[in-house]
């Protein structure tokens, strides 16, 4: 993935690897993990163990498969056609991630703009309020009718969320500097600013964990706190998961840079991870505005 074009790879040939065990291995790992999660949700004792086994197998698959891709790249087996396919694949992957978060933002929007006003008797839905939830008030944030999960407090936007926003925005700047350093052939600056980027990412995760502990132990804000609690933790939790994956990928790219991988003109693996990181930054900005601020 590092060198998309080389004299070692014919320009009119598309590299197709020999048979690989990783697709079937990954399928078995995913199936095992999903079965374990299903059993876990149904309170079967073997569920946590099975899901953990599937997750570990999935990690092995990622490490092995990406290791093969890196080896093929460093062996100069890829050409411009392969590079284009990598770019198209990454674009479609990020598009799928956009749709993933759009579903959760859509749930948040629907709850705030439609469900809660209807339950509160706004507009033509006044009978919904009278017949189903009399005296329920249209307000946000809400734990829903009958105060599902008990009363709770929200996390102020100008606390840890604002600090995490600054961290992610700064990480976007350091990653851009690292990218320009790579294109300029400045390996020292590349390594320094790339390391700063993934360290900022891990610091973000640490502070988000602190925020969750504070929410659960002191604010009574949990997944069971009605529609606000569920949408809050789904959006912030999945985003935190994406930051974790992105920081790990940046760390792997950093180790590859230390080993001398990538050139100023051929470094799609770096660019692909950079696209993903900037996407994560943009999602956080939207999340910060609509979940914490408004």
What do you see in this structure?
The chain is mainly alpha-helical. It has 2 domains: 1-78, Helix Hairpins (Orthogonal Bundle); 80-293, Four Helix Bundle (Hemerythrin (Met), subunit A) (Up-down Bundle). Helix content is 72%, strand content 0%. It is built from 8 helices and no strands. α1 packs antiparallel against α2. The longest helix is centred in the middle third of the chain and has 40 residues, at 80-119. The radius of gyration is 23 Å and the shape is globular. It starts with 21 loop residues before the first helix and ends with a helix. Residues 1-7 have low confidence and may be disordered.
Structure described in brief:
By secondary structure, the protein is mostly helical. Helix content is 72%, strand content 0%.
Any idea what the shape is? globular
Number of helices: 8
- Total domains, how many? 2
- What gyration radius follows from the Cα positions, in whole Å? 23 Å
N→C terminal distance: 42 Å
CATH superfamily of the largest domain: Cytochrome c oxidase, subunit III, four-helix bundle
Given helix and strand content, the structural type is mainly alpha
CATH class assignment of the largest domain: Mainly Alpha
Q: What is the chain-wise order of helices and strands? A: HHHHHHHH
Please count the beta strands (DSSP E, at least 2 residues each). Answer: 0
**CATH fold-type name of the largest domain:** Four Helix Bundle (Hemerythrin (Met), subunit A)
Outline the biggest β-sheet: none
């Amino acid at each position: 993935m590092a060198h998309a074009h080389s004299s070692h790879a014919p320009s009119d040939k598309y590299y197709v690897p020999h048979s690989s065990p990783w697709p079937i291995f990954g399928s078995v790992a995913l199936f095992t993990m999903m079965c374990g999660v299903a059993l876990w949700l149904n309170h079967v004792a073997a569920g946590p163990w099975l899901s953990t086994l599937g997750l570990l197998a999935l990690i092995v698959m990622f490490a092995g498969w990406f290791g093969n891709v890196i080896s093929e790249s460093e062996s100069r087996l890829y050409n411009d056609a392969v590079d284009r396919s990598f770019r198209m694949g990454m674009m479609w992957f990020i598009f799928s991630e956009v749709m993933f978060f759009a579903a959760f933002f859509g749930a948040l929007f629907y709850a705030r703009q439609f469900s809660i006003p209807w339950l509160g008797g706004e507009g033509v839905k006044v009978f919904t309020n009278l017949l189903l939830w009399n005296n329920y008030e249209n307000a946000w944030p809400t734990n829903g009718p009958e105060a599902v999960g008990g009363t709770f407090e929200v996390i102020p936007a100008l606390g840890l969320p604002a600090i995490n926003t600054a961290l992610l925005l700064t990480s976007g700047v350091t990653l851009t500097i690292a990218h320009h350093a790579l294109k300029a052939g400045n390996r020292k600056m590349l390594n320094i600013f790339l390391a700063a980027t993934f360290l900022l990412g891990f610091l973000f995760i640490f502070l988000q964990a602190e925020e969750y502990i504070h929410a659960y132990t002191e604010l009574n804000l949990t997944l069971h706190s009605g529609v606000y609690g569920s949408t809050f933790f789904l959006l912030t939790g999945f985003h935190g998961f994406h930051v974790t994956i992105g920081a790990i990928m940046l760390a792997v790219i950093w180790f590859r840079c230390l080993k001398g991988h990538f050139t100023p003109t051929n470094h799609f693996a770096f660019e692909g991870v950079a696209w993903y990181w900037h996407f994560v930054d943009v999602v956080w900005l939207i999340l910060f505005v609509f979940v914490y601020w408004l």
